[in-house]
Write a structure and sequence with these properties.
The complex is a heterodimer of chains A (117) and B (116). Chain A has 117 residues and is an all-beta fold. Chain A has one domain: Immunoglobulins (Immunoglobulin-like). In chain A, 0% of the residues lie in helices and 44% in strands. Chain A is built from no helices and eleven strands. The radius of gyration of chain A is 14 Å and the shape is globular. By secondary structure, chain B is mostly beta strands. In chain B, the strands form three sheets. In chain B, strands 2, 5, 6, 10, 11 and 12 form a six-stranded mixed sheet that branches. In chain B, strands 3-9-8-7 form a four-stranded antiparallel sheet, with no helix packed on it. Chain B has one domain: Immunoglobulins (Immunoglobulin-like, Sandwich), CATH 2.60.40. In chain B, strand 8 and strand 9 form a beta hairpin. Chain B has no helices and twelve strands. Classes of the chains: A mainly beta (117), B mainly beta (116). The interface between A and B is medium-sized, with 29 and 25 residues.
C-alpha cells in the first residue's frame, strides 16, 4: 500500500458550501495529481503539481482550485459546491525517489467521495 | 495526444479460470510506460503491473501477466487462476516519459466479475 492519504473519505454537503479535500503523502514525491472519476467511469486529470508553488490545470476543466505550499500536501478546494460537483476525487503522487519503479509509477490515495445536495 | 481504449466494458470469469483483458493505445512516441491498475469497489486504485516499452519481455507479477505487442499497440492483461478478490474495475494506462507532469492517460475501464 502506498503512503498517500485523503480526507474526508465520504462527504455530503449542501449547495453553496465551501469544501476542501485534503491529500497528503509521506513518500517525498515531487509530483502530485488530482483525478475526478464518476462511478464506474474513467478517470480525468483535473490538477497537477510539479512541486512546491507549482500548480497546473489538467485535461478536464474543473471549478476547483489547488495549492502546493508543502511538498507533502496538495489540497483541493471548491469555493461553492454544486450538485454537478458530485463525484469521486482521487489524489495521486509520483517522484524520483521511487527507486523501485524507474518509470515513476503513480500511486493513488483511497479517494474522496463527494455528494452535493 | 495519446489515447487508450479498453473495448470490453465488462468481463466475467469462473473462479480458478483464466481471463484476458484487452487494451489498445495510440501514440507516436517510441518510449513510454504502460500500466494496469485495479480498483475494487469504493477502494484504492492499486498498481497491478507495469511494462516499459523498450523491454521486449512481457512483465509478470505472480498470477498477472501482460501480452505487450508494441507494433500493434496492444497491451492485454492475463489473470490466471482467478480469485474472488480479483473482482474489480481494471484500468489500462499510458504514461509518456516526457510532457507536462508525466500524467497518466487512462482507458475507460473493464469491470471484471468473478463467479464462484
Amino acid at each position: 500500500e502506498a503512503d498517500i492519504y485523503q480526507t474526508p473519505r465520504y462527504l455530503v454537503i449542501g449547495t453553496g458550501k465551501k469544501i476542501t479535500l485534503e491529500c497528503s503523502q509521506t513518500m517525498g514525491h515531487d509530483k502530485m495529481y488530482w483525478y475526478q472519476q464518476d462511478p464506474g467511469m474513467e478517470l480525468h486529470l483535473i490538477h497537477y503539481s510539479y512541486g512546491v508553488n507549482s500548480t497546473e490545470k489538467g485535461d478536464l476543466s474543473s471549478e476547483s482550485t489547488v495549492s502546493r505550499i508543502r511538498t507533502e500536501h496538495f489540497p483541493l478546494t471548491l469555493e461553492s459546491a454544486r450538485p454537478s460537483h458530485t463525484s469521486q476525487y482521487l489524489c495521486a503522487s509520483s517522484g524520483g525517489q521511487d527507486l523501485a519503479f524507474s518509470g515513476n509509477t503513480i500511486y493513488f490515495g483511497e479517494g474522496s467521495w463527494l455528494t452535493v445536495v | 495526444a495519446q489515447t487508450v481504449t479498453q473495448s470490453q466494458p465488462e468481463m466475467s470469469v469462473q473462479e480458478a479460470e483464466t481471463v484476458t483483458l484487452s487494451c489498445t493505445y495510440d501514440t507516436s512516441e517510441s518510449d513510454y510506460y504502460l500500466f494496469w491498475y485495479k480498483q475494487p469497489p469504493s477502494r484504492q486504485m492499486i498498481l497491478v503491473i507495469r511494462q516499459e516499452a523498450y523491454k521486449q519481455q512481457n512483465a509478470t507479477e505472480n498470477r498477472f501477466s501482460v501480452n505487450f505487442q508494441k507494433a500493434a499497440k496492444s497491451f492485454s492483461l492475463k489473470i490466471s487462476d482467478s480469485q474472488l478478490g480479483d473482482a474489480a474495475m481494471y484500468f489500462c494506462a499510458y504514461r509518456s516519459p516526457w510532457g507536462a507532469g508525466n500524467m497518466l492517460t487512462f482507458g475507460g475501464g473493464t469491470r471484471l466479475m468473478v463467479k464462484p
